[in-house]
Amino acid sequence: TADERRAIATRALAGALRGLAPLSHAVADDLEHEAIDADALRRIAASMYATELGSLAGELQGSLILRAEVLRRWNDFVGADQVARFISTGIGRLRAMVLTVFRGRTAAPVTIIEAELTSTLEALGLRHATEAARRTAMAWSDRPETAEVIAGHHGLWSASERFRPAIEEGLGEWMRGIVEDVRSHAGRKRTVAQVSALGVNAVGVAVMLAVFVNTAGLTGAEVGIAAGTAVLNQKLLEAIFGERAMAELIATARERLMTLLTTLFEDERKRFEELVPAPGSMRELATELRAAVDGIVA
User: 200-212 and 2-62 helices cross at what angle (nearest 10)?
Assistant: First the structure.
């Protein structure tokens, strides 16, 4: 009869649903295991890129990244010998000197120093980004779930082709931002004359140099043009802007540079992350699958 056939079908369906529950939970378990693996792979990439970014930051803060001859050009323009004679007499005398010492001088080597900074930072950034990629690719190739993927993407063993133009463009924006900050600070009445004496672009270069050139850790034979340039820049910027504004300009420039480099390294790291499923999505799917099956069986 129809009722008997319906009862048989109902029992068959109930049995099928009971068998579906263990299978669905097993699939959900697999999804969660894959999410764990994806998390591990992402942590590897994040660790490699964070390590290399930290090494890059250490190089920028702890060493002289410009050639001595480039700094000598800057010191010759500024008149380091004259500045040195005024340093011991106090900031007031130095501030007055700034108004006269630059009149009639040759043009500041702004373009030369900017080009040197750009090429040096590009080279350092590229080296560390390539090392981060190489170390990540090597670690991923040792894992069975990603070995084949790495083998099929040879470009993952070095920085991407877009890294160099991206850092070049970013550094250009960074330098223009420093000049705009100098121009903004020069709007204050006391600094107008001093900035005008050097030129806003030259003062911007002084700020850029101050981000990298310092006397921290310099001893013995290392004390030379690097230490001299550090003192020169500090005294000039302090004479022009005052100690607080000078520190603000340098700190802002340093922070923006690190933000730029961090963003570039994050973009490079995403090349790897895009090759594995998002762990959060897999966990959500596992939860939804369990809930759906439990609801049907219940």
Answer: 100
d(CA 197, CA 195): 5
Which range, 61-65, 148-152, 288-292, is most confident?
A: 148-152
Gyration radius of the chain over CA positions: 30
CA atoms within 13 A on the CB side of 192: 4
Which are the contacts of 201, defined by CB distance < 8 A and separation ≥ 6?
108, 110, 179
Residues in the chain: 298
Residue 31, judged by CB atoms within 10 A of its CB (0-12, 13-18, 19+), counts as buried
The whole-angstrom separation of Cα 258 and Cα 57 is: 8
Q: Which residue has the tokens 């480039």?
A: 70
User: 18 phi and psi, to 5 degrees?
Assistant: -65, -35
Strands (E), 235-295: none
State how far the alpha carbon of 293 is from the alpha carbons of 25, 26, 33, 282, in Å. 8, 12, 19, 17
pLDDT over 90 at 97, yes or no: no
Distance linking the first and last C-alpha atoms of the chain: 28
Whole-prediction pTM value? 0.78
